[in-house]
Amino acid sequence: MIVIEGCAVATVDAAGTEHADGHIVVAGDRIVAVGAGPYTGDESVTRVDGRGCLATPGLVNTHHHLYQWATRGYAQQEILFGWLRELYPIWARIDEGTVHAAASAGLAQLALSGCTTSTDHHYVFPRGGGDPLAAEIDAAAAVGLRFHPCRGSMDLSEKDGGLPPDSVVEDTDAALTATKDAIDRFHDPSPGAMVRVAVAPCSPFSVTPRLMREAAELARSEGVRLHTHLAETVEEESYCREVHGCTPVEYAEDLGWLGENVWLAHAVHLDAPAIARLGATGTGVAHCPSSNGRLGAGIAPVRDLLDARVPVGLGVDGAASQEAGELGAELRQALYLARLRGGPAALSARESLALGTIGGARCLGRADELGSLEPGKLADIALWHLGGLGHAGIEDPVAALVLGPAAPLRLLLVGGRAVVQDGSLSTVDVTRVATDLARAARRLR
Ligand code: ZN
């Protein structure tokens, strides 16, 4: 058993329970007790001194493209479509080695910023590039994060009216077969799973309606979740209106892409009926504030989504449109963007923390196991050190975490296993990961 004590605790449970000085008890991969004051049980335990720290649930990253860690810094002043046009030909050269190096780096950075569960949306499978999905699953196991790879796909190229060149798209039937194969090989439906697969055609302007519709049928028959990009930019909305005669959300609904087993990346450009439909159907949203800022895509209506009872989580998005790739920093970015849109009351620090934890767990269909510190849940815990220069004297620890600079981690547990200790990864050598990444990026360039 592990006992963390002497720390502030923000449980992010339904009642918003917090302890100014509390403890958390972990047995195996589960939390068995959370409470105020010191732990008084007499079992032999490993004790962690949490004085000067805040314990929160581990953060949940609901949208990423890990391979993009090898293509950071390109197309620095482009909107989404121009950015994609510059990057597609480079992405056409990736292989499983590139993806392993990039995913190791991206996941290491996520762990060091408090993330315990990450998704990845991988949709580039060049011919002869090996098995990128297996490569990133290997990387996640080495870093020690809980991982939800989303098997992406594109089958609509320039010659058929789509945005990507022929070199990066797949045949529709081949994409569906490979997606089914990924579920068979890697998806673990059991409680406490470290790997779960989702079905994830890329976007309205790179995927045919047939692939969208049959992918939804496949996911529902296999009992896995559905993920895609939607309503990210005004250009995407114009594309949908021109080609399909409707808004992106109407298009998604027509294809069977709204529902409790679906979460959508971005959802920036939504009218009132679209927000109501997402709420009524229980469709989740992965809010990616830094990426939306980098690409100048717009500000998502997060307050309106929450008021409509839409599950909203946070995502860092791919590192080619968000070079930092830190999930902890997105807590503050989400708060800032919500307030730039709706004023200072639009999102509180505690609501922002909830987006990054229980909101993300809801998007992934795992709110019963992840996203809050409660007995019976998985022991995915971030213990943030708030005693240093960056945070000293901020009386409210949740405000210190969300509004202050990126906080260092005293400890990060994933299923009770220490992945970060005293600010350093315990699982992989960060210097080697950075060297491998730089080599992969150079090769692509
Ligand atoms: Zn994305």
CATH C-level name of the largest domain: Alpha Beta
User: Overall mean pLDDT score?
Assistant: 97
Residue share in helix = 25-40%
By secondary-structure content and strand pairing, the structural class works out as alpha/beta
Number of alpha- plus pi-helical segments: 14
Secondary structure tally: strands: 17
Rg (C-alpha, Å): 21 Å
Protein traits:
about 20% strand, single chain, 14 helices, binds zinc ion, nine-stranded mixed β-sheet, about 35% helix, TIM Barrel, about 450 residues, 17 strands, globular, 2 domains, alpha/beta, Urease, subunit C, domain 1
Description:
The chain is of the alpha/beta class. It has two domains: 2-57 and 376-425, Urease, subunit C, domain 1 (Roll); 59-363, TIM Barrel. The chain has helices at 80-91, 96-112, 132-143, 172-186, 209-222, 234-244, 248-254, 272-281, 289-294, 302-307, 327-342, 349-363, 397-403, 430-444, and strands at residues 2-10, 18-27, 30-36, 46-49, 53-57, 59-61, 115-122, 146-153, 198-201, 225-230, 262-266, 284-287, 312-314, 381-385, 409-414, 417-421, 424-425. Strand 11, helix 8 (272-281) and strand 12 (284-287) form a beta-alpha-beta unit. Helix 2 packs parallel to helix 3 (132-143) and helix 11 (327-342) packs across helix 12. The chain is globular. The termini are far apart. The model has no long low-confidence stretch (mean pLDDT 97). The structure holds zinc ion. Zinc ion (ZN) binds next to loops.
